[in-house]
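F.,

This is the one I mentioned.
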């Protein structure tokens, strides 16, 4: 079964009135004041349905649901449904019977909100019909639809701010791994102009023996002092204390230093 065979209900109003409409003498429009509003010709229920692209305004009996009249609407706005010039609660609809005969009757609502719902229901139906028609055309001819142009126009430029990106890349590239010590601990680099860690003995090692006697200040001694610690001679024992043995001061490995400095032995 095709989709056009289904009938859907768009709007239902429990009470409406039908009036006889006198022939329109000119094109100035209909006026509800000319219809004898206190004497309606018929009263009942209104139901708007849709089947395919056509909407049907059906006037039915309140109790039995018997159809009194039906007005097919194939487009909107059209002469099938017209408003009057002097009120928003009244309309003129074109009804049609099974034999094809047509007549214009007046339709009135008790409440103004019901009249508004009636008008909006018909408008929404034909908006949907228009959208379905446009989608069907695009499906048949996809190349004829509007295309999205993403190209640059003549003279158009674009700017990219990558300052933050450069800063992050520089910060990431400047980080260097710190050197690790013998036990796997992180070690700081030596300060500028300071001694390297290679001149400091590791745990378990002893300082080389050196005489506590100082020599007269000279250029040679100044150069020699810059590379401290240095052994006093090849004959000095490696396991002696760095300050020497005061009990055996007479057996020092550098006796010539004692004579030059003037230290007194105890």
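My design for it:
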């Amino acid at each position: 079964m095709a989709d056009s065979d289904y009938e859907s209900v768009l709007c239902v109003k429990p009470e409406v009135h039908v009036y006889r409409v006198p022939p329109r003498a000119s094109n100035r429009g209909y006026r509800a004041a000319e219809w004898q509003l206190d004497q309606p010709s018929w009263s009942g229920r209104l139901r708007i349905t849709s089947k395919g692209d056509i909407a049907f305004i059906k006037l039915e009996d309140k109790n039995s649901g018997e159809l009194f009249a039906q007005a097919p609407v194939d487009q909107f706005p059209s002469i099938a449904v017209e408003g009057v010039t002097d009120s928003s609660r009244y309309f003129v609809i074109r009804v049609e019977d099974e034999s094809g005969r047509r007549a214009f009757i007046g339709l009135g609502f008790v409440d103004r909100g019901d009249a508004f719902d009636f008008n909006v229901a018909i408008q929404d139906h034909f908006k949907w019909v228009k959208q379905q028609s446009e989608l069907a055309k695009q499906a048949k001819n996809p190349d004829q639809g509007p295309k999205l142009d993403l190209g640059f126009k003549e003279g158009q430029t674009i700017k990219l701010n990558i300052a933050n990106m450069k800063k992050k890349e520089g910060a990431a590239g400047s980080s260097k791994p710190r050197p690790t010590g013998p036990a796997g601990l992180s070690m700081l680099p030596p300060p500028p102009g300071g001694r390297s860690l290679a001149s400091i003995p590791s745990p378990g090692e002893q300082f080389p023996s050196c005489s506590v006697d100082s020599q007269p200040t000279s250029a040679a001694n100044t150069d020699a002092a810059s590379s401290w610690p240095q052994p006093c001679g090849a004959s000095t024992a490696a396991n002696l204390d760095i300050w020497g043995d005061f009990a055996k001061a007479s057996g020092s490995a550098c006796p010539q230093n004692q004579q030059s400095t003037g230290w007194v032995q105890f």
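Residues 230 and 236 are 11 Å apart (CA to CA).

Talk soon.
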